[in-house]
């Protein structure tokens, strides 16, 4: 795989080869961003070079990347920087941080007095934004730290970097331009539409976006976060003795700083506290709307920064605490096609196992067949795998310049890989035309139907269901309700278990319509939509009588999906009749109406583990149902619109945010009291 050797370099030949490898990786990294090495491999290579150069100073090549900003390979323009724009030194663990703290104290001949400012290390491209008399006049890339490229053509496409300041002042603000996750996806969508090569990750996408802004006839948006400011044109407007104070001043000018994020700047007295903040930011990482590759710790007071001084490549007063890489390169060795519960046929990438952010990744989602076609991916391509906010690893695009002779096209299936039936290719997602109600995906559909959020027959595990399907006792969800005691005893091999199951099945007959409907596994519907449909129509008969237009009128139901949903409901007619005949409830209970419930008009967010009075609502869907039954609206994230936060055990960032916004926070007891009539 594309990892660098880890043994020490022992000969000049080895050293020369390693320098060449680093230089070509660098050149790719800073230009079109498709390096042959991932970051950990590159960093390991640089450490090897450093080690060799320490022992053989007589062999050091003048073009060695060690100790240079941008490894000496970043595109350098002709714009002179006001003051050097440097890189950062790295540490990777607590020990490294302690060492850095000790060396800082030595330079200051005593401890740090002004505290440590801690900020996220944003993973994009450094730019300097020059404002003259309140107008954004020039953007400059970092280059070799002394000269940078003019990137002014990107003015107007960078969120957070206004073209006019709130005050007519002259200043140079420095910070990181990046693609947020959403901007990254939008950028790739645009590039696919325009037939351009998609970016394989957000970081290299940023450099490409800024540099390419000149030659594109469409605009790709990026986002800016400031992390510094220097005087420009000799106009000294910066006030305050600390980094923190200047960042507040930048913020007041209308420029976005990291204060706009949950991981924003905070100042701590001790390095130990700063280290805890590193861990906090690491925990927030998955939730942040953009990528970070570390946390930056800086001496907060300028006089202390000045005393500590600079090395050629980096300041002594700041350090980057690198977090484990959230992406890595590996090889796409296969594509699997899985058939899901509603018959969706989804492709999954099989990867050569690779370590990403502390776990081994073997698979990644490929979304749908059109994604494969548009990404231009081929089998045996090298791909960049990354973990986004979600847990499913993703790959975006192949690293085309690493494509080998063994690359072969990815073959899309002609027939359902599971049952051999036809595939419905009319939508973006392919579906087995035989995939619902009966044939393909039956077992998965049944598992879904009996699960806790639907019919809640928890004694029916997959193996049990499999036995029932195999011996012919069950061929659709309705058959579950006519199972005899004998059949259950035979499958369960236990009278006691069979009786428990009979009780659960009897209880399932009384479930509200929304759950019964959901258990049908109708295409393009899930928990939320099933609840909307049941609330809207109130009875199964009304649902069946609804035409496409009537369905499209259901709140939250995308009109484009209504025809498929209507067709599937019609196709399930026989199963629904069987359910009704078995005595399964077909009505949505009219609870206190949304207009009169105790939570009417309230927008409620739940966070943390539910205990005590709400202990049986540990499942978030159960809480949502409770909130909606009581007339409220349930939401997943805290915003200004939120009116109540229910905070349980170990509530974290949502609680902090609610407190910040002055939102009513209730504990389990208080909330339970409020909805006492609905706890059932
Ligand atoms: N894969 C490859 O082939 C390859 C090649 C070259 C470099 N790299 C990677 O690039 C990195 C080295 O690049 P570098 O020297 O540009 O350093 P760097 O990018 O790791 O760190 C310095 C930069 O951090 C940024 N930064 C983000 N948040 C900041 C904040 N709050 N305060 C100050 N600065 C902040 C600034 O842009 C600054 O220039 C390494 O991680 C290396 O692995 C990889
Ligand atoms: Zn099938």
From TrEMBL:
Enzyme Commission code(s) on record: 6.5.1.2
Domain BRCT, first and last residues per copy: 594-669
Keyword list, A-Z: DNA damage, DNA repair, DNA replication, Ligase, Magnesium, Manganese, Metal-binding, NAD, Zinc
Cofactor(s) needed for function: Mg(2+); Mn(2+)
Stored Gene3D superfamilies: 5' to 3' exonuclease, C-terminal subdomain, BRCT domain, DNA ligase/mRNA capping enzyme, Helix hairpin bin, Nucleic acid-binding proteins
Source domain of life: Bacteria
Residues engaged in binding NAD(+): 39-43, 87-88, 119, 142, 176, 298, 322
Active site: 121
Residues annotated for Zn(2+) binding in this entry: 416, 419
GO molecular function: ligase activity
Signal peptide start-end: none
Role, per record: DNA ligase that catalyzes the formation of phosphodiester linkages between 5'-phosphoryl and 3'-hydroxyl groups in double-stranded DNA using NAD as a coenzyme and as the energy source for the reaction. It is essential for DNA replication and repair of damaged DNA.
Classification via NCBIfam families: dnlj, PRK07956.1
Name of this protein: DNA ligase
Taxonomic source organism: Streptomyces yaizuensis
């Amino acid at each position: 795989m594309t990892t660098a050797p880890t043994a020490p370099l022992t000969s000049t030949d080895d050293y020369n080869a390693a320098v060449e490898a680093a230089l070509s990786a660098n050149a790719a990294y800073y230009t079109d961003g498709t390096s042959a090495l991932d970051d950990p491999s590159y960093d390991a290579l640089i450490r090897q070079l450093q080690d060799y150069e320490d022992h053989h100073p007589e062999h050091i090549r003048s073009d060695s990347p060690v100790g240079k900003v941008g490894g000496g390979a970043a595109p350098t323009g002709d714009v002179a920087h006001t003051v050097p724009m440097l890189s950062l030194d790295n540490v990777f663990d607590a020990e490294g941080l302690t060492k850095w703290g000790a060396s800082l104290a030595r330079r200051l001949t005593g401890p740090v007095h002004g505290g440590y400012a801690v900020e996220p290390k944003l993973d994009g491209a450094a730019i300097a934004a020059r404002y003259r008399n309140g107008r954004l006049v020039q953007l400059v890339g970092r280059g070799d730290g002394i000269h940078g490229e003019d990137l002014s053509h990107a003015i107007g496409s960078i969120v957070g970097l206004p073209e006019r300041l709130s005050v007519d002042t002259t200043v140079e603000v420095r910070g990181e331009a990046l693609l947020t996750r959403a901007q990254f996806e939008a950028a790739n969508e645009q590039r696919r539409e325009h037939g351009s090569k998609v970016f394989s990750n957000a970081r290299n996408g940023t450099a490409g976006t800024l540099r390419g802004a000149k030659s594109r006839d469409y605009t790709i948006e990026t986002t800016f976060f400031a992390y510094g400011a220097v005087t420009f044109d000799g106009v000294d407007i910066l006030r305050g003795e600390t980094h923190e104070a200047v960042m507040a001043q930048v913020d007041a000018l209308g420029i976005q700083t990291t204060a706009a994020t949950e991981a924003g700047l905070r100042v701590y007295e001790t390095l130990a506290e700063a280290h805890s903040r590193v861990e906090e930011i690491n925990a927030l990482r998955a939730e942040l709307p953009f990528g970070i590759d570390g946390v930056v710790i800086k001496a907060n007071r300028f006089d202390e920064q000045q005393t500590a001084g600079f090395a050629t490549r980096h300041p002594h007063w700041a350090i980057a605490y690198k977090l484990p890489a959230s992406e890595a390169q590996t090889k796409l060795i296969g594509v699997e096609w899985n058939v899901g519960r509603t018959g969706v046929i989804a492709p999954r990438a099989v990867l050569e196992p690779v370590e990403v952010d502390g776990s081994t990744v073997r698979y990644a989602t490929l979304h749908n067949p059109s994604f494969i076609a548009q990404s231009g991916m081929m089998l045996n391509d090298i791909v960049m795998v990354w973990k986004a906010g979600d847990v499913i690893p993703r790959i975006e695009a192949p690293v085309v310049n690493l494509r080998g002779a063994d690359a072969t096209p990815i073959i899309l299936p002609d027939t359902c890989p599971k049952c051999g039936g036809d595939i419905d290719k009319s939508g973006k997602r392919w579906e087995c035309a035989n995939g619902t109600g009966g044939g393909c995906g039956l077992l998965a559909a049944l598992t879904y139907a009996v699960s806790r959020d639907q019919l809640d027959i928890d004694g029916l595990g997959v193996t049990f269901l499999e036995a029932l399907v195999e011996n012919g006792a069950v061929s659709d969800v309705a058959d579950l309700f006519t199972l005899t005691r004998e059949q259950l005893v035979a499958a369960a091999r236990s009278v006691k278990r069979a009786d428990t199951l009979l009780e659960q099945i009897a209880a399932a007959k009384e479930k509200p319509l929304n759950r019964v409907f959901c258990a049908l596994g109708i295409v393009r519907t899930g928990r939320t939509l099933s609840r909307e449909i049941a609330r809207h129509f109130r009875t199964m008969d009304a649902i069946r009588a609804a035409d496409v237009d009537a369905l499209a009128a259901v709140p939250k139901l995308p009109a484009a999906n209504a025809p498929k949903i209507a067709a599937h409901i019609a196709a399930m007619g026989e199963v629904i009749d069987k359910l009704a005949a078995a005595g399964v409830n077909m009505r949505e209970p009219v609870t206190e109406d949304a207009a009169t419930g105790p939570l009417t008009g309230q927008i409620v967010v739940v966070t943390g583990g539910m205990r005590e009075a709400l202990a049986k609502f540990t499942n978030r869907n159960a809480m949502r149902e409770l909130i909606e039954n009581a007339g409220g609206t349930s939401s997943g994230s805290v915003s200004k619109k939120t009116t109540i936060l229910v905070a349980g055990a170990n509530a974290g960032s949502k609680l902090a945010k609610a407190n910040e916004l002055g939102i009513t926070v209730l504990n389990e007891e208080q909330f339970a009291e409020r909805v006492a009539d609905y706890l059932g």
